[in-house]
Amino acid sequence: MVTKCLYCKRSVPGRFGTKNYNKAMSESSLKLDFSNTEIAFSNKSDQELKQTFWLFKMMNNQQLVNMGSSLGMLGLKLHVPFTKYFIKKTIFKQFCGGETLRDTQKTVDQLHKYKILTILDYGVEGISEEHEMDETRDQFLAAIKFAASNASVPVVSIKVTGLASNDLLEKAQEESKLSRSDYEAFERVVNRVNDICRYGHELDVKVFIDAEQSWMQDSIDRIVNSMMEKYNREKVIVYNTFQLYRTDKLEYLYASHQKAQADGYMLGAKLVRGAYMNRERQRAEEMEYPCLIHKDKEATDKDYNQAVEYVVKNYETIASCNASHNAYSNQLQAELIAQMGIHRNHPHLNFCQLIGMSDNISYNLSSEGYNVAKYVVYGSVKQVIHYLVRRAQENTSITGDLSRELKLLQTELDRRGL
Ligand SMILES: Cc1cc2nc3c(=O)[nH]c(=O)nc-3n(C[C@H](O)[C@H](O)[C@H](O)COP(=O)(O)OP(=O)(O)OC[C@H]3O[C@@H](n4cnc5c(N)ncnc54)[C@H](O)[C@@H]3O)c2cc1C
Known about the structure:
Helix content: 40-55%
Bound molecules: flavin-adenine dinucleotide
Radius of gyration: 21 Å
Structural class: alpha/beta
Mean pLDDT: 90
């Protein structure tokens, strides 16, 4: 599908937002209120709200999360009865869309009711066998087919770490280090990614490629750049991910944009702060090299918000996705869109959050007409357990205060008088 942008007067291809592209909507005053819990939890019954509150209350306790994570992983490994059942009824239900692609349909439909799009995210991690990597590619291809037939699923997210071994990606940071067999294995990885991007291009489904740890990211960037060069010529299909907690990534965003312009394709940019800060710091210390992560949160925030400004200002040649749970960064993008007089649902300007988190941002953005999507993770409990542990840890309070999510849930319970 190709849409003419009213502002830049050029073809704006792609589906992220284009289905809801509302030409009649002018850029009116900005009325965003992320503290509006009535809208944020409008999809939850009283009972569901109480259950969610209970879950986040459990997760607020760091000791409980640490113990629960270790027991959960051990229980799954040893097939302890009811472990899987318990995980599925609690944390899995909160943060995942189901075990299979078909299971996700319920979540997709539920989000669609609130004009929220879905980004399918097959939760695969840490595999090393070639046949498993081929299976993962097939899973991603199936997700693209599913998305193509589903009006509110414009994007499939993929992880190169599900298509390659971590060791190989690390080695491939310096191509000269690759042996002949490594080189062949790397070619197979490139072919898997290419199969996915080509299919996305054919069926008009976008492909977001996740960012990983710095010791693998150069290899991933190389592959993604070659895919963007191939498939982002007449529309934006492939998106790289920029981790702004890294000191070098704002510059890299600018350089990627310049390269895209020089080589005649459009940049797809998903912005994130970055998920692997502790491991990055620990490894830099152990191996005695300068850590690539900003020295403090303020510096990360500064680069992140500058990146948001850059992609919005260059929306004609960059299709972006602001992937964050940070209220200020989301508000900033909304304000810039208003200041520049761009349509709120311009297909190049998108927001997304993870399912089960920051509904206050997603539901309030969608109710104001912005393009917003949820990452809907799916996979077997065993496959997604590491993802679930990360989510639990993210919602833990170290200081004993209520976590961001818990405060919002408490506000809504109070508002409903429950
Ligand atoms: C839809 C979606 C997709 C994502 N995809 C990826 C991905 O592909 N790759 C990836 O790595 N992450 C990914 N993430 C996770 C993301 O990188 C962040 O870890 C997470 O979203 C928290 O950051 P925030 O912007 O939501 O908000 P905030 O809560 O405001 O920021 C927390 C983040 O700030 C940074 N930070 C915190 N303390 C410090 C400090 N002392 N010094 C420097 N920096 C600090 C860290 O990055 C931390 O995660 C994704 C997140 C979302 C919502």
